[in-house]
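User: I've been trying to design a sequence by hand for this structure and keep getting stuck. Would you show me what you'd pick, starting by listing the structure so we're on the same page?

Assistant: Good idea, let's start from the same input. This is the structure you sent:
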């Protein structure tokens, strides 16, 4: 396929593309590329250096370095398809908006710094994220448990059902719940947690728990959790 046809197709798919010389001078740019690079129109970008406008787009796409274009605007370079007729000493640079990617990386970094343990599962209860505090508390190996169902990694020891699958199934929030469980690595853990389903437009995307080691919970909060557990037990007809 000719490079101009490729640039048009990429634009229709919401991706930016520029034809640049070996010195990164822009010779052509597609419609989406004009918008993403903040060009008022095509000729405004022609002759300018991509390295001056968004230098991370000049790096190989495998490096995943974001180009910051303004508040909450990030771009990411993508692999470029082969073209039959690229002009001599020119290359095609393809990129897309990556604001969601950057935000996700920032949120994940923040979760890694908090002292509470966090575990997140998808709608089928498969684990897709554990922060450092959770890894240390449960003594799990991330590469072994990511993608595994919550029930295959954790087993309750207190006669209760695991809370994340309940939250996902019932679309219900569970606050201040104590749970004692063992991991597939035979580590017994006693925690108190707040557990939430992730619901968007009525669709359940998954669920997550924010947990504290029971031994680290202060006495007042322990009394509150224990009282709450008694009230729940009294209101559960299956317990009578």
């Amino acid at each position: 396929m000719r490079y101009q046809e490729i640039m048009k197709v990429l634009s229709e798919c919401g991706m930016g593309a520029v034809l640049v010389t070996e010195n990164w001078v822009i010779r052509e740019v597609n419609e989406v590329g004009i918008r993403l690079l903040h060009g008022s129109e095509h000729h405004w970008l022609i002759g300018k250096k991509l390295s001056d406008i968004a230098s991370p787009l000049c790096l190989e796409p495998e490096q995943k370095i974001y180009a910051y274009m303004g508040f909450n605007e990030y771009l990411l370079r993508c692999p470029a398809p082969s073209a039959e007729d690229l002009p001599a000493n020119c290359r095609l640079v393809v990129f897309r908006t990556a604001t969601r990617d950057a935000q996700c990386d920032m949120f994940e970094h923040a979760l890694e710094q908090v002292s509470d343990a966090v575990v997140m599962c998808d709608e089928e209860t498969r684990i897709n994220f554990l922060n450092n505090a959770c890894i240390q508390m449960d003594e799990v190996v991330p590469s072994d448990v990511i993608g595994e169902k919550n029930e295959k990694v954790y087993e309750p020891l207190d006669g209760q059902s695991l809370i994340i699958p309940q939250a996902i199934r019932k679309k219900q929030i569970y606050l201040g719940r104590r749970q004692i469980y063992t991991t597939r690595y035979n580590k017994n853990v006693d925690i108190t947690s707040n557990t939430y389903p992730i619901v968007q437009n009525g669709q359940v995307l998954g669920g997550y728990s924010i947990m504290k080691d029971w031994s680290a919970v202060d006495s007042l909060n322990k009394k509150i959790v224990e009282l709450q557990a008694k009230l729940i037990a009294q209101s559960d007809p299956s317990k009578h």
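That's my pick for every position. To get oriented when you compare it with your attempt: The CA atoms of residues 5 and 202 lie 40 Å apart. The chain has two domains: 3-99, 114-239.
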